[in-house]
Design a protein that fits this description.
about 80 residues, 3-stranded parallel beta sheet
Length: about 80
């Protein structure tokens, strides 16, 4: 079963995505910060990362993530 990493600072968004994707047969894991994204990617391989690019509770942004992607290894 393909595993998807969900990243958003709003837990209700994460739960909605989890429910939708589970119904389609996907396994999901959810994190709420950029640091947690990197930690999860270091521990496991994911078929897809679905990430909020506009975090509201801190200064994290999609641009910050893009600059940091050299640290990421997503499975193909």
């Amino acid at each position: 079963m393909p595993r998807i990493l969900l990243a958003d600072d709003q837990r209700d968004v994460l739960e909605a995505l989890r429910i939708l994707l589970k119904g389609e047969g996907y396994q999901t894991e959810a994190v709420t910060s950029l640091a947690a994204v990197f930690h999860a990617l270091e521990k496991k391989d994911y078929a897809l990362l679905m990430m909020d690019l506009n975090y509201t509770r801190d200064t994290t942004s999609g641009q910050k993530f893009r600059r940091s992607t050299t640290r990421c290894r997503l499975s193909s």
